[in-house]
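pasting for the record
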Amino acid sequence: MKKTILFTGLLFAALASFAQLKSEEKVKESIMAIHNAIFVQKDSAVLEGLITSELTYGHSGGKIENRLEMISAVAKSKSLYTNVSAKIISVSVENKTAVSRYLLIGTETKPDGKVTELKLNILQVWVKVNKVWKMMARQAVKVS
Protein backbone atom coordinates (compact mmCIF):
# COMPACT_ATOMS: atom_id res chain seq x y z
CA MET A 1 0.00 0.00 0.00
CA LYS A 2 2.82 2.42 0.91
CA LYS A 3 4.58 1.64 -2.38
CA THR A 4 1.39 2.37 -4.33
CA ILE A 5 0.91 5.71 -2.57
CA LEU A 6 4.57 6.62 -3.11
CA PHE A 7 4.43 5.62 -6.79
CA THR A 8 1.23 7.63 -7.32
CA GLY A 9 2.75 10.66 -5.61
CA LEU A 10 5.89 10.46 -7.74
CA LEU A 11 3.81 10.06 -10.89
CA PHE A 12 1.76 13.19 -10.10
CA ALA A 13 4.95 15.14 -9.33
CA ALA A 14 6.49 14.08 -12.64
CA LEU A 15 3.35 15.06 -14.56
CA ALA A 16 3.20 18.45 -12.83
CA SER A 17 6.86 19.05 -13.63
CA PHE A 18 6.29 18.16 -17.28
CA ALA A 19 3.29 20.53 -17.48
CA GLN A 20 5.39 23.31 -15.91
CA LEU A 21 8.18 22.83 -18.48
CA LYS A 22 5.66 22.79 -21.31
CA SER A 23 4.12 26.07 -20.06
CA GLU A 24 7.57 27.66 -19.78
CA GLU A 25 8.35 26.67 -23.38
CA LYS A 26 5.06 28.16 -24.59
CA VAL A 27 5.81 31.43 -22.78
CA LYS A 28 9.30 31.50 -24.34
CA GLU A 29 7.73 31.06 -27.78
CA SER A 30 5.38 33.97 -27.05
CA ILE A 31 8.28 36.15 -25.85
CA MET A 32 10.10 35.60 -29.12
CA ALA A 33 6.95 36.12 -31.19
CA ILE A 34 6.31 39.53 -29.57
CA HIS A 35 9.99 40.46 -29.79
CA ASN A 36 10.00 39.70 -33.53
CA ALA A 37 6.65 41.43 -34.12
CA ILE A 38 7.97 44.65 -32.53
CA PHE A 39 11.63 44.80 -33.50
CA VAL A 40 11.88 42.76 -36.70
CA GLN A 41 8.57 42.59 -38.57
CA LYS A 42 6.58 45.48 -37.01
CA ASP A 43 3.55 43.19 -37.28
CA SER A 44 0.52 44.61 -35.49
CA ALA A 45 -1.64 41.55 -36.33
CA VAL A 46 0.69 39.28 -34.37
CA LEU A 47 0.68 41.74 -31.47
CA GLU A 48 -3.12 41.85 -31.36
CA GLY A 49 -3.19 38.08 -30.83
CA LEU A 50 -0.53 38.07 -28.11
CA ILE A 51 -1.47 40.95 -25.79
CA THR A 52 -4.39 41.43 -23.43
CA SER A 53 -6.89 44.27 -23.64
CA GLU A 54 -5.55 45.49 -20.26
CA LEU A 55 -1.95 45.79 -21.48
CA THR A 56 0.35 48.30 -19.80
CA TYR A 57 3.53 48.74 -21.82
CA GLY A 58 6.42 50.57 -20.16
CA HIS A 59 9.38 51.91 -22.13
CA SER A 60 12.87 52.39 -20.76
CA GLY A 61 12.48 56.16 -20.95
CA GLY A 62 9.42 56.14 -18.70
CA LYS A 63 6.64 56.37 -21.29
CA ILE A 64 3.70 54.05 -20.62
CA GLU A 65 1.26 52.96 -23.31
CA ASN A 66 -1.99 51.02 -23.31
CA ARG A 67 -2.85 48.31 -25.84
CA LEU A 68 -4.07 50.63 -28.62
CA GLU A 69 -1.20 53.08 -28.17
CA MET A 70 1.40 50.32 -28.23
CA ILE A 71 0.02 48.61 -31.36
CA SER A 72 -0.30 51.95 -33.15
CA ALA A 73 3.24 52.99 -32.17
CA VAL A 74 4.70 49.73 -33.51
CA ALA A 75 2.74 49.96 -36.77
CA LYS A 76 3.73 53.62 -37.35
CA SER A 77 7.34 53.33 -36.19
CA LYS A 78 9.89 54.57 -38.71
CA SER A 79 12.83 53.42 -36.60
CA LEU A 80 15.06 50.76 -38.07
CA TYR A 81 16.29 48.09 -35.66
CA THR A 82 19.44 46.19 -36.57
CA ASN A 83 21.54 43.51 -34.92
CA VAL A 84 18.65 42.95 -32.51
CA SER A 85 18.83 39.88 -30.32
CA ALA A 86 16.89 38.57 -27.36
CA LYS A 87 18.36 36.42 -24.61
CA ILE A 88 15.75 34.94 -22.30
CA ILE A 89 17.01 35.14 -18.72
CA SER A 90 14.13 33.56 -16.82
CA VAL A 91 10.55 32.37 -17.04
CA SER A 92 8.53 31.55 -13.94
CA VAL A 93 5.06 30.04 -14.29
CA GLU A 94 2.45 29.82 -11.52
CA ASN A 95 -0.90 28.43 -12.68
CA LYS A 96 -2.14 30.79 -15.43
CA THR A 97 0.35 33.58 -14.73
CA ALA A 98 3.98 33.85 -15.82
CA VAL A 99 6.76 36.37 -15.28
CA SER A 100 9.64 36.59 -17.72
CA ARG A 101 12.85 38.55 -18.04
CA TYR A 102 14.94 38.91 -21.15
CA LEU A 103 17.85 40.99 -22.39
CA LEU A 104 17.41 42.90 -25.63
CA ILE A 105 20.54 44.08 -27.43
CA GLY A 106 20.63 45.93 -30.73
CA THR A 107 20.77 49.24 -32.56
CA GLU A 108 17.94 51.66 -33.26
CA THR A 109 18.25 54.16 -36.11
CA LYS A 110 15.60 56.89 -35.91
CA PRO A 111 14.18 58.60 -39.03
CA ASP A 112 16.38 61.65 -38.36
CA GLY A 113 19.47 59.41 -38.57
CA LYS A 114 20.19 59.35 -34.83
CA VAL A 115 21.62 55.98 -33.83
CA THR A 116 21.09 54.55 -30.35
CA GLU A 117 22.62 51.41 -28.94
CA LEU A 118 20.00 49.37 -27.12
CA LYS A 119 20.71 47.23 -24.09
CA LEU A 120 17.48 46.67 -22.20
CA ASN A 121 16.39 44.34 -19.45
CA ILE A 122 12.72 43.61 -20.10
CA LEU A 123 10.25 42.31 -17.53
CA GLN A 124 6.97 40.88 -18.83
CA VAL A 125 3.87 39.54 -17.10
CA TRP A 126 1.88 36.91 -18.99
CA VAL A 127 -1.56 35.41 -18.44
CA LYS A 128 -2.99 32.32 -20.06
CA VAL A 129 -6.22 33.14 -21.91
CA ASN A 130 -8.03 30.32 -23.71
CA LYS A 131 -4.83 28.23 -23.90
CA VAL A 132 -2.80 31.15 -25.31
CA TRP A 133 -0.14 33.04 -23.32
CA LYS A 134 -0.75 36.78 -23.67
CA MET A 135 1.34 39.64 -22.40
CA MET A 136 -0.44 41.79 -19.81
CA ALA A 137 2.42 44.05 -18.72
CA ARG A 138 5.90 44.99 -19.84
CA GLN A 139 8.59 47.24 -18.39
CA ALA A 140 12.00 47.90 -19.91
CA VAL A 141 15.00 49.39 -18.13
CA LYS A 142 18.31 50.45 -19.62
CA VAL A 143 21.30 48.32 -18.66
CA SER A 144 24.50 50.30 -18.19
